[in-house]
Design brief:
The chain is mainly beta and 153 residues long. The protein has one helix at residues 2-22, and strands at residues 45-56, 59-73, 76-81, 86-91, 94-99, 104-106, 109-114, 116-122, 126-137, 140-152. Strands 1-2-3-4-5-8-9-10 form an eight-stranded antiparallel β-barrel.
Length: 153
């Protein structure tokens, strides 16, 4: 049984390496998607919303709901939102994307620095997760937190 599982794992890694080496934008099922559960299907585009809260020393200062688009191709993820774009990687059915170019305004609070990180999971039909990170808004240190969710397009 152990030898069969090792052979299956080796075959999956070989397929993922082959897809990565040739830069193929195939479906996640063919190139490293899937995992131990469902997901990793052929959908690679998702649209939805993110709900964010800007806080200072743990006290919420402002909140906003922004649109979001998530594109997954092979082992890469690109998140496009109203004002917080991010890029990152996919591992199985999990994703991590980071934005170093933060620039948005919420309730007259202008945020122009910091690093926003999206962490989440996805399957054929949807993607969801958390938004977090340090921000610099109006020259003061703040934090962003929240969630995002999107469905297949």
């Amino acid at each position: 049984m152990k030898k069969i599982m090792t052979t299956q794992l080796t075959a999956r890694r070989s397929l993922t390496a082959l897809c990565t080496a040739f830069g193929l934008a195939l479906t996640l099922t063919a190139c490293g998607g899937g995992g131990s559960g469902s997901g990793g299907g052929s959908s690679s585009g998702f649209t939805g919303t993110q709900s964010i809260v800007i806080s200072s020393v743990g006290t919420p200062i402002a909140s906003e709901v922004l649109s979001i688009e998530v594109s997954i191709s092979g082992s890469r993820v690109v998140i496009s939102s109203d004002q917080i774009p991010a890029e990152g990687s996919v591992d199985g059915n999990s994703l991590v994307a980071t934005s170093d170019s933060v620039q948005f305004t919420v309730n007259e609070i202008e945020c122009t620095g910091g690093q926003v990180t999206y962490t989440g999971t996805f399957d054929d039909n949807s993607v969801s997760g958390d938004v977090s990170g340090p921000l610099v808004c109006n020259g003061i240190d703040f934090a962003i937190s929240g969630t995002f969710q999107a469905t297949s397009t």
